[in-house]
């Protein structure tokens, strides 16, 4: 068995596969806030809170108790590159979009917070047809940092929206370490 990979926090790596349901919160100020819960149990794990008045496109990943796990920003003139910070605003890693045929890919270099080993996670999305654009599903493999995958899922959703393809429903996250 491989060791768990914990980039954002060691407590958020799961030992079994899990599927998350990311649903946009209706009537939020920014219109882009999400609740993330386990499909099987209905247990809420995370919240994604968007700062509607931020010129840096700031989004905060919170646990269900309201504690900040990560802060994600798209800097001005950054070519759609996002930076992910710790709650103390220490830069953890960057996520950069790459264009490929019929898909959007993201690449990154991140350091495991337990082993201090560098990894290169990659995310890729799948876009089936859907009429409403307010919910997404994310599959997470055992031993992988759930908060990291949720941050990748949000970036994939955002990148797909920027590319004028708002048909994204299922975010299939593929990690290569």
TrEMBL record:
Pfam families: LOR. SUPFAM superfamilies: Tubby C-terminal domain-like. The lineage of its organism: Eukaryota, Sar, Stramenopiles, Oomycota, Saprolegniomycetes. This is Aste57867_25523 protein. Belongs to the LOR family.
